[in-house]
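Can't attach files on this board, so I'm pasting raw text. These are the components:
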Amino acid sequence: MPGDPLAMIMRNPKASAEVVEKTKELFGLGQSWYIQFFIYFKNLLTGDLGLSFQYKKPVIEIIIQKIIPTVVMVGLAEILAIIIGMLLGVISAWKRGTKIDVIALSFSLITYSMPTFWLGIILISIFSISLRLFPTSGMFTPGKTFYSTIMLIKDGASHLFLPVLALSLVLIGEYAITMRNTLLDVLTEDYMTTVKAKGFDDNYIIKKHAIPNAMLPMITIIAINLGLTIGGTIQIETIFSWPGIGRLMYEALNNRDYPMLQGIFLLITISVILANLIADIMYSYLDPRVKS
Amino acid sequence: MALLRVNNLKTYFQISAGIVKAVDDVSFVLNKGESMGLVGESGCGKTTTALSINKLLPQEGKIVSGEIFLEEKNILKLNDSEIKKIRWNDISMIFQGAMNALNPVMKIGDQIAEAIILHKKVSYKEAIEKSEELFKLVELEPKRISNYPHEFSGGMKQRAMIAMALACDPKLIIADEPTTALDVMVQAQILNLLDKLRKEVNMGLILISHNLSILGETCDKIAVMYAGKIVELGNVEDIYNNNMHPYTNKLLSSFPNIHKEKKIPEPIDGIPPDLINPPSGCRFHPRCLYAENICKEKEPEMIKINENHNYSCHFGGIFNE
Amino acid sequence: MMSSIRKEMRKKKINTFIKSYKSNRMGMIGGTILIIFIMVSLIGPIILPFNTMKFGEADNVLKPPSKEHILGTDDLGRDVFRNLLAGGRISLMVGIFATIISMFLGTAVGIISGYIGNKTDIVLMRITDFFLVIPWLPLVLVLAAILGTSIWNIILVIGLTSWAGTARVVRSQTLSVKERPFIERIRAIGADDKTIMMRHILPNVFPLVFANTILVTAVAILSETTLSFLGLGDVTRSSWGMMLHYAFQSGAASTGAYWYFLPPGICVVLVVLAFTFLGYSFDEILNPKLRRR
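---
Top answer:
Structure tokens for the assembled complex are below.
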């Protein structure tokens, strides 16, 4: 990472001498690079990801705080998108060429062609400003006292609605198109002719033969996509001021908070590896050719 | 009554580059218990003819005109649900083994059983039992019905497909290149098996291949196709010993004969015909050694030599001179 | 003698392609939209120039559409419509140039990796996997932060991060072309690797690359828009993404200044859709198996 952190901290008038010294020590700045690397790994193993320049607190503390909001929002959006998107894709492929397919395809293509953040802006403008249905930012209403859990949940839900809607719309488009294409690919396979030759309904053919085969690449794509959604998350969290990892990264970048960035990158790397691992496991579970 | 009658079948494909006349006026008759070979080079319309009989054409394909009769039923007049009852129950198919004709994520036994359950309305248990019997019939280990396709060799997959085709005791089996991509020994085994089983139940068989030599043993009669048309149709003996069309003659002579003199067979000149704009007159004329002007101008009529043998050529048998 | 047959065949292929394209509705719609946008982007700013430096008067800020300004004014009192016209040039330019870099890299890596094989293949594929698996936006953000945000750096960054998909696809196509008998014959005649790759593999891989290029352009334009929005664009060039950036910063969403944040977004969507349509239609025409879709 470029830019001398020391110089950056120094430039920050609020940095006390203590912090500067501690940072210098922690990062082994001033020592050769392989010692720095070693120190980094040693710290890593003990869960020490360094101090954030912005927050003056351990990076790992901040990250842990911000993970839950992201997971909640992304989790909900993904679940919605997977279910609706796959359904849409199946209908599209099955009724290929008909009005339903054209509409579904158009919808998917349009949301897929939209910049994610732009969709967020439009949603804010329609639902928050014009209709005054939902709040524009944050996870909970600031300064509000919650007398009961239900109140808390209601407030949280109303803040959750738009970000989740924005993210899921974009993802639905992507999953629908992928499912449609995968299914169409499967439908051109030779064994589909065999099944048809046996005299089955389209319904049976799609459910029992096409979809099971289409799920194989789909699972892989979905799992890998989970690891990549960070891109969409950054945009959504920025627009909606959602207190999650995405926004954390955006701020860290703008403030050149390198320890924070390193920490977040580590997190991203781990989740991508995890996602790929899960994809591999699920695939080997579903595909008999791999089981043996 | 004949088992299958195809009259003047025309099946065309609509693609972005134009209309492909894949099957252009094909007629033949298959009697009960008879086996017919359908031979021709790649793209001549054999598979399309087969798929037309079962109405299994892809979206771009349409049967433009003609009639197909399975015994007394007019196939082309049947609606969707009636045709589905006929599929596999009356007419079943065996596809090329090298193709991906079996669902890779479903057990083979289940793939056989599902057809039996659909048409014979029996329980899963009974269907599985029948599948095991079928496996025995095709000389496969019955326990292996719980295997997946990738666990079978090419020859075994082919046998499995024969078992599957027999599942509902059909009246007619259409086998499309069942032995291509198998080694010669296995080829012979498969053909013998097919022949034996067919005769046991007196089933009709249409055997499609681009390899004329394998049809001689198992077929009662042979139809030779070129560019979407049948150019010669006759009994096996007639086709082998008394063929009249230059194309048939060329096809036969492209196989080295152990008994005759040793020489390298001559290939057929030229490139496969364009089915969107087929050659004028006789479609074979660009590649025929004996073509004259009339061949370019006028399409030859079907000439009947005897009850079972006909061909379409202006100069039938000219190669004998 | 041989090359004139080649030319004949090539001409025939191109004609068939054009005929198929004209009958493909999706492709025609996409192509038409694209042509309109390109023409407007080229001519528009000449007729109605936009000066980023020319600010309007303070009371002309964020005014709704009027006779004078068909799309209203932005947060600096400038004409939104003119900005839109100028923005088209930049967004399209970045998209196209970044794609050129990406396609070049991707095709080269794909062909070399697929054709040469062995260790080269393994190494190149590991690198490709790295770029494929890493979430795109964080990677781009870091590169942009390092390299700086001038327009050429942005083009470079987008190009350098989007070639991996193409490489994979080209590689598998190369592998299948490599198996064709004529390759062996040409090698027997004594052609060297470079010639084979350039004159024999490349033309056979080209249709795939072509369709892929169009689709990558769509993604490149989206990427630039997103980058600019996040503040990593070239501030001296007012692309559609930058317009959206300032729109958001100035609170256009909360104040309901729809004329500011809607038009640039709509333009991006239309252009990206157009490229996608075009790319899909090319894919369909050039890939026979897909024709059935």
